[in-house]
Every structure is written in C-alpha cells, then in structure tokens.
Model the fold of this input.
Amino acid sequence: MSVPIWVGHYIGVPFKEHGREINGLDCWGLVRIVLLEQFSIVLPCYSNCYKSTKSVPELSKLIEVESKKWQEIELGNEKLGDVIVLRMRGAPMHVGLIIGDNSMLHVENYINSSIEKYKSSRWVNRIIGFYRYKEV
Done:
C-alpha cells in the first residue's frame, strides 16, 4: 500500500502542546484531525485531560481509556487509518497514524509532524499495538 497524496498536507505541522488545529498539534491532535478530515471519524478532544505530553501517568491513562473504543489489530494486518500506540519513557504515551508502506505520520515534542518507518530501529521495540476505530 503506497502513501496517499493527501498525507503531504499534514507534513511539517508544528508541535504544540494540547494543539488541536492545523497550525499546531500534539500527537493526539494530529491523529484526531487526520481521522476527521480524511475518514470522517470524530474523536474526543482531550486537550484538557492532561497537563503535558511529558506527563506519563496522565497520557498513559488517557490512551488506555481511549483504546477501549478501538479494535486491536495484529502486526502485519495494520492498514491506512489505523492508530499505532508507542511506548515513550517506558509507558504508552505516543500515537501516530498508519499511512501505508510501513510508515506512520506523527508529531513529537519540539519536532514538526513527519513520516517515519515504525519498523525502524528507533520505533520497532516501542510498539505497543495497532488499533482500528470501532464504529459504535
């Protein structure tokens, strides 16, 4: 599966703590805006549910709560639009969006949004799981 052309619209978006608009996003904000604009999936904002993207306990709990609304997908069965949950500092606190070609779109603290291979040495051992939104 090749990377869709529309992904280019989201590359280079600046990181912004609690960001929920295209002029600045955190990792959840990026996943949320892309799923809304490209897949018509409306997700909760959660911008007031954690103090900082560096707050491991708060973000870990948020990802755990939100993940119950999703179907877990086995490695190898992920597809465009699935969400990848990654471990940072030993806890599940980062998300990205699968965009094809073993790649994810994500944004990190102080790093603009970009495409990275999630099977790279930087990420492969941090993968917690892949999730597909369940229509409720």
About this structure: Residues 5-133 form a domain with the endopeptidase fold (from Nostoc punctiforme) fold (CATH 3.90.1720.10). The beta strands are 20-21, 24-25, 70-73, 83-88, 91-100, 103-108, 111-117, 127-133.
